[in-house]
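Hello,

Our lab assistant flagged a job as stuck in the queue for most of the afternoon. It eventually completed. Since we weren't sure the result was trustworthy after the delay, we are filing this so someone can double-check. Below is the sequence as submitted and the structure that was eventually returned. Let us know if re-running is recommended.
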Amino acid sequence: MEQLSNAELMELVRNSDFVAFDELYNRYREDVFKFLYSLTWDRDVAEDYVQEVFLRLYTARNRYTPTAKFSTYLFQIAKNYYLYQRRGQKAQTKDLSLSYKDCSGFCPFENIRANERVEPEVQLMEEYRRLNIRRAIGMLPEGQKLVFVMSHIRDMKYAEIAEILQIPEGTVKSRMFAAVNKLQSLLKERYK
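-- returned structure --
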């Protein structure tokens, strides 16, 4: 199964091949989890959402056509499920802590580090800065938040984001511009 392409696996899944489905799950579970965790900042919620995303993938197996990359199709399902859940809730601000790693050690801000040789107070301030960044990202409108997370935390290209969100690439760019401006404004207020 490992040598089969995603499209070939989905063809097998279409015929209810659970081994092929398990292979797709193993290939993409971690990426989908990281994406959803970066949007929700809640491990349990992200894990629940991952299960729902793959359930929806399986349920929609007969509608899948390999016209685009499989990962694009899967992330569209993840994005749609996330937005569906957000619509069902009032926009709630999750109480965030300084601990931001998930159980597998994934850290969306792993490239933003305090110098390890500095005083503990400086490291604590760096953690506090990261917490404020997470809070600010959480305050973005959903369209901007999705674009920002996909680009800066998941390291996706604008063309791929446009395909997943099913919007023009120019809209991705304008949402990114608006997100960065909003984040700058929110963080400037925080540090006045």
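-- support follow-up --
The delay was a queue issue, not a problem with the job. The result is valid. The chain has a mean pLDDT of 85. The two ends are 56 Å apart (CA to CA).
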